[in-house]
Structure prediction request, 154 residues.
Amino acid sequence: MMATSTPRMGQALPAVHRERLMRLARQVNFSSGTRLFEEGGHADRFWIVRTGTVALDMYVPGRRPAVIETLGFGELVGWSWLFEPHVWQLGAEAATPVRALEFDAAGVRELCGTDAALGREVGLWVGKVLAHRLLAARTRLLDLYAPHGSGLPR
Prediction:
């Protein structure tokens, strides 16, 4: 089974909703090696990568964190901000210097609460990203730790 790319905001949201959401964005930069967030931390923001790459990782007891996926241009970094209890389910680190658009989670949730159509579209987009990340995590962990030939179900 071939993994598809993460749904990007530009593809997932109609222009009118994208424009409203973009009003809440601010430009940020991260140096290579900067931790954006840690698994278990409070999820109070998210990012859209403009340039560079971000590695998503998962804590594995007794081992180094496993890199689940590397994100690039246009991809969403962070989905835990949308779902209570707003706790990061993965960690993230700038693998290269990164320029990104940063969004305050509370402001976006408030906007989604006042505009039901926008809220529905954002929820569907983030849900698709979440489904993709779950498959990526499963695939990566099987690659790393499962016996050979035990891969994805057919």
